[in-house]
Amino acid sequence: MNSERLSNRLKAVASYVKEGAVVADIGSDHAYLPCFLVHTKKVKTAIAGEVAKGPYESAVKNVRREGFSEAITVRLADGLFAIEEGDAVDTVTIAGMGGPLIATILESGKERLSQVNRIIAQPNIYSRAIREWAVSNKWTIIDEHILKEDGKIYEIIVLEKGQAMYGELELMAGPFLLASKTDVFLEKWEGELAEWNRVLASLKKTAETDAIKKKKEQMSGYIELVGKVLTT
Ligand code: SAM
Fold first, then answer.
1. Which residues span the domain enclosing 194?
2. Which atom number of ligand 1 is nearest to the Cα of residue 13?
3. What's the mean pLDDT when you consider all of the chain?
4. Claim to verify: residue 16 and residue 82 sit in the same structural domain
5. Atom 9 (ligand 1) nearest CA
6. 63 within domain boundaries
7. Same domain assignment for residues 84 and 163
8. What is the pLDDT of residue 15?
9. How far is the CA of 14 from the centre of ligand 1 (A)?
């Protein structure tokens, strides 16, 4: 397998998988991540779960082409229902979807997480949904990462079992990301701030109704919070 083909985003997700883990990659269009993990010998076995037929077939084809059919089981299944008893999956990766969809997948299949001790989530947007899910379900954030690739900014959240409490800013921006404030992190939040200021400015030009007033208050609240993200 040509590991150069794997995006930096998925390589970053792979870097949080422990050596010898048994991984279920949920939403495994093409099964690139499981193939990379097996190819680099980081894991011996993995499950690739996909809910849509086309991507599932691409995953099956890819696994076969790479010669990994013994090591990687591809299943057509909704979310965590790709994990079966006896798989001994200890690590779940879910990448390339919105935060709310990832949180819904975790919530609706959470009984399948009983043997899982690490979840590596890579939301494309609204990562807060995953942090809120983690707090409600006794998972704690043990690391986070932010990166930019092809003009897009991505976050990675690594969860292990444990109860944590996060404040408003940590839920929104991520406790580890907030503490390290990398250039990419600052770029993300400066971009959000500019966007919300733009929305607020255009709302101010609109005739005031109750709905517009509420929206303006909401935008002002976001802007204040993002200001704190950038300055604290
Ligand atoms: N994980 C890959 C990545 O990060 O490049 C693929 C991301 S792709 C944008 C999202 C994939 O998740 C799609 O193939 C979609 O069919 C799949 N998906 C969405 N909802 C799912 C669910 N409930 N269960 C399994 N797969 C799902």
1. 185-231
2. 4
3. 95
4. yes
5. 96
6. yes
7. yes
8. 98
9. 16
Asked if residue 176 is part of any domain, the answer here is: no
The CA distance from 108 to 77, in Å, is 13
160 and 205 assigned to the same domain:
no
Burial bucket for residue 200 (CB in 10 Å: 0-12, 13-18, 19+)? middle
Query: pLDDT of 32-60, one tens digit each?
Result: 999 999 999 999 999 999 999 999 999 99
Using alpha carbons, list the distances in angstroms from residue 28 to 23, 63, 121: 12, 11, 13
104 and 121 Cβ atoms separated by less than 8 Å: no
Q: How many angstroms does the Cα of residue 50 sit away from the middle of ligand 1? A: 6
Selection from 201, 193, 200, 196 nearest residue 229 by Cα: 193
Q: Are residues 56 and 133 in the same domain?
A: yes
Statement to judge: residues 26 and 90 lie in one domain: yes
CATH code for the domain of 67: 3.40.50.150
Q: What's the pTM value of the predicted model, to 2 decimals?
A: 0.95
- Is residue 211 in a domain? yes
Judge contact between 10 and 30, C-beta under 8 A: no
Please name the helix (run of DSSP H) or strand (run of DSSP E) that holds residue 111, with its range, or none.
none
Per-residue model confidence (pLDDT) at position 5: 77
